[in-house]
Each structure stands twice: as C-alpha cells, then as structure tokens.
Write the structure tokens for this entry.
Amino acid sequence: MQNKGRKQLEGILFPVLSIIVALVLGAVIMAVMGYNVSNAYLSLLKGAFGNKNSVGETLIQATPLIFTALSYAIALRCGLVNLGAEGQLYIGGICGAIVGAHLTGIPGPIHIILVLASGFLGGALWGLIVGILKVKFNASELITTIMLNYIALELVSYCVTNAPFKDMTPGAAPRMAAVADSVKLPIIMSQSRLHLGFLFALIGIVFYYIFMWRTTKGYEMRVIGQNPNAGRYSGMNIKTNGILSIFIAGGFAGLGGIINIIGVNYYLAEGFGGNYGFSGIAVALLGSCTPIGILISSILFGALNAGGIKMQLLAGVPSAAIYMIQGMIIIFAVSKELFLWFRKCAPKSKEKKEVKADG
C-alpha cells in the first residue's frame, strides 16, 4: 500500500513540477528577450480563462487533444507506440467529411452518428494497417505509423484539390465540400463556440477507463503491455490484442479529426489537424496515460493554445513561446523516467564498485 501511495504521489508531483519549472524557465527566456513577463502570463491566463468565450476556446482546443491522447494511451497500454495519430486523425476527417457533405436526406441525429462512425472507422482502418504489418511482418510500428502519416497528409492534399471531393464553389480556397447543416454540432455553452464534441470527448475518457480497467479484454491488454511473456504463458493472444488496441486507438484519433470538423470548421482543409496528433502524445505522457491525467493535461494544453493567441495580441510575445513552454513541460515530465532509471541503476553501480574493491 505504501509503494502504491508513493507511485500515485509521484504521478501527481512530477507533472506539476514539470509545469512549474517550464513556466519559470519560459519566463526567464522571455525576460532575456525583452518581453514583459507578468503582462505575458496575465494575457495568457486571460485568453484561457478570462470569460466564458475564453473557457470555451480552451475546451475546444482540448477536445481533439483528448481523442489523440487516448489514441496513444490505448496502444501504449498494450505495448505499442502509436506515433500515427496525426495520420489517423486526417483519414478520420476525410471519411467523416465525405459522409457529412455528400450523404443527404436523413434526420440530423442519424446523420451525426453516421459521420462519427465514418470518422472512427476511417482512423481505425488506418491503424489496422499498422497492426497487420506488425503481426505479419514484425514491422516496427514506430516506422510504419510515421510513414502512414505522410501518406495521409498527401491524401488530404488530393481531396482538397481534386473532384469529386473538392469544394467547387467559385473562388473558394482549396478545401473539401462543407458538411451539411444537419451534422453541425450544437453549441453547449452560451457566449462561446463550445460544442457538443467536448461531451463526446468526456464520454471517450469514461470508455477508456471502463474498457481498460473493468473488462477482461482491457485487462489482457494491460498485462501484455507490462509483460508480454506473462501474457503469453497465461494463454492471452498477443497478436489479436495488439491488432485490436491499434484499431481502437486509430478510431479515437479519427474521431478527434471529424469532431473538430463538424464542431468548428465545417469543412476539411489542409492543416485542419493543427498538429493535434503529435500534441496528443505529449498530453498522454504528461497525464501518465491515466483518464484523469489525460483530461487535466488536455485542458492545460488547450489553455496554452487558446491563451497563446491572446498573449501574442496583448503582450506581443510570439506564439512560438507557447510551443517552447509545451516542449519544456514534456521534457521535464519525461525526465521522471530518467530519474527513476538512474535511481534504479545507482545501487547496481555501487555493488559493482564494492565487488571490485573486495577483489
């Protein structure tokens, strides 16, 4: 019980310290560059939580991050490193946007369900390619997911510039056709743009918790992720669980893509992903791949993204400073593993020195 309590305390302490240290170092760097630090951080806070609209923008930014963080966490729980959430998000966005724009004549709620299902299935099938390559040819998912990201990006470029998917409106910028009004998600908070997609993201977190910690299949995935040999000796099918985990992971990333389209943009254009796929990895790592951790981390990163715009407008600090702070947060959060590794290796090194001294 004491070890469990210590691990839980470390799981909270390290992310908090990472955030504090990153903000302090960010302040030092901005001060050296000649910016007013207090004005910058006050503007950041105001842009993230200053009023209902600011809170709404923070949660809008957090919504796709929750899905891509869940994508990374689900695969990691089964021992796979999914670096392909960016591409899975793109494919989910393409599939959902096609159904949302070209399927007409059906009731709005049913249409929304079909769009979400298409987005999930698109991302899931893109992830399934990784799983099959891993199982059949032992191809590293680190390589295949990154390569598939580039392919997905090119598919987006093709869809926004070529018929029948391109928006044929005269003078329109390269983009896919806008989705029907029936699938545009309703606003759930007045005086803001916050849409129903945030509630879907919360449901996704609940699903992640129930599936991973309250089902047999989730238990198998966690066992395999921690110790594949133990899972194999217990009769668990490692290949099947691996494919299922990357399939679900891809589906969650796909949902992040299409929900951002039907909730905010209403059409797919190049760059619509907003780097949410890779940022989701950072969110998952900072949150230790736990449900509550992912929720809090996604809101933090959403606040940095939303507040960064206000910081740039009011304090004149470049938005690149936000990416710098986010990067430092992740470096310090991941350094926990380095610290634990050094602490584990320290006794071994001490034992070797004692053996040499005795010899």
Remarks:
- DSSP finds 13 helices and no strands in the chain.
- The radius of gyration is 22 Å.
- The mean pLDDT is 90.
- The first helix runs from residue 2 to 32.
